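Project standup — Tuesday

K.O.: blocked on the structure for the chain from last sprint. Re-posting the sequence here as requested.
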Amino acid sequence: MSRLRVILIYSGSIFVFLFFGPGLTLYAGCLLDRLLHTPRFPWKFIAYPVGVILMLAGLSCIKASWQILVRVGKGHPQEVFGYPLLPPTQKLVTDGPYNFTRNPMALGYLLNLLGILFLFRSLSALILLYPLIWALTALYLKKVEEPRLVRRFGQEYLDYRKRVSFLIPHVPD
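H.V.: unblocked you, prediction finished:
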């Protein structure tokens, strides 16, 4: 696999998940704020530090998850609805952040998005859109990713699924 292809796929993923997705959510939230005449989140002095902390936590989670997948799993996380854009991991990764949640990248994405929404203080995005995005993410993970992982890793994944939380550490499925 060419290095250029890997760089292009990772660049595209970063753009979609860290800029386009959150930007679209913010745009939709601003439109809803105008339509519903919703005020902005009122406590700027709380919103900004909370937003930054959530973003840093989310980005750290994404980075740590990616690094261990590549290093230990000997593959890449990039796929679109089961179609791998890069060679998938060869080994089930259960260490690092995967010891606390089966989906640390998704958790990182959701934390990062929540942080961005706090920074921009859109109540519609926080109250209406964020729960919808959370639900759609969970649905995708449950209906697309988990069955694929069961097919790839069999009993090893089923045992892992029994002992590690789905998305939020220490919260049962």
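K.O.: great, moving the ticket to review. The first strand starts at residue 79 and ends at 80. The mean pLDDT is 88.
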